[in-house]
Amino acid sequence: MPRPRIPERRAQLLAAARALALERGWPSTTVADITSRVDIGKGAFYLEFENKAAILDVLIADGMRALSRAVHRRVVATHAVIDLPTIYEFAIDALLDDPLMRAFFLGDASVLGDHVQSVHDGRYRQRFDWLTEYVTALQEAGVIAARTDGQVLSQMLSVFTLGLLNAPGTIQVDSDEQLRRTVAMFADLVGKGLDTGRPVDPEASRRAQLVMLDRLQNQLDELRTTSPRNQTVEH
Questions:
Q1: Rounded to 5°, angle at Cα 115 from 178 and 86
Q2: How far is CA 209 from CA 110, 117, 131, 223, in A?
Q3: Distance CA 31, CA 52 (A)
Q4: What is the predicted pLDDT for the residue at 227?
Q5: pLDDT in tens, 51-87
Q6: Would you tell me which of 13, 48, 73, 208 could form a disulfide with 137, CB atoms 3.0–4.6 Å apart?
Q7: Which residues have a Cβ under 8 Å from the Cβ of 27 and sit 6 or more positions away?
Q8: How far apart are CA 116 and CA 61, in angstroms?
């Protein structure tokens, strides 16, 4: 008969993995470290997660979910135009406010970059498509010049983001201030280069960002729900 998962066990393993990642770094953390921290057998671990990479996937998804909610709050609370420089500012603030995501980005050289390269379920392709639709919505709101090729711009923004994910291990982006300045300069240059010089519809730009955030949140929720280790086990 189907036996349900034990929510407390899964939560304990995630909490232990998070704590160990902050204490010693993710590359130095093993499955044995995680299970011994909460006195759970390795067999029970593998009922909840396929391997160490799987628990990292959940930790990153949970971090992304928290970042999305934080940006959502900033967007709703801001009455100014939500343009690309603004949204990049909100995103980097949210990332640096999360100890684990900050550690993954600035402390563990290849964690986020390697993770993105290891995921093959289509989630990042879907996000690229949403980004292209978001760019189109910003064009309609007057934030981005209509002459801009939305797909090319989306690709450029994605290349920058992927470059940032791999930067700590290659060019030593090793401080909050350096990361903030890098992102701010990129966003400012792009924003100025795409400025229409005409009136902007602030509500339309806000709606476009909220649609993007809602889509991301729904995708993350669906990934958590459909994870194979979230299903029941047959005996």
A1: 40
A2: 29, 26, 10, 21
A3: 6
A4: 60
A5: 999 999 999 999 999 999 999 999 999 988 999 999 9
A6: 208
A7: 108, 110, 111
A8: 11
Residue 118 in tokens: 């290891």
Q: How far apart, in whole angstroms, are the C-alpha atoms of residue 204 and residue 83?
A: 11
Question: Max CA-CA distance within the chain?
Answer: 65
Q: Which DSSP string do the residues of 5-54 spell out, in sequence order?
A: --HHHHHHHHHHHHHHHHHH-STT--HHHHHHHTT--HHHHHHH-SSHHH
How much of the chain, in percent, has pLDDT values that exceed 90?
72
Count the Cβ atoms, other than its own, within 10 Å of residue 80.
10
Token look-up 């093959």 returns: 120
Nearby residues of 71 by Cβ (< 8 Å), 6 or more positions away: 87, 90, 91, 94, 213
Question: What pTM did the predictor assign?
Answer: 0.86
Q: What string of H, E and C letters represents the secondary structure of 179-224?
A: HHHHHHHHHHHHHHHHCCCCCCCHHHHHHHHHHHHHHHHHHHHHHH
What is the residue whose two structure tokens read 């989630």?
123
Q: At what angle do helices 111-118 and 52-77 cross, to 10 degrees?
A: 100
Nearest to 216 by CA among 5, 9, 69: 69
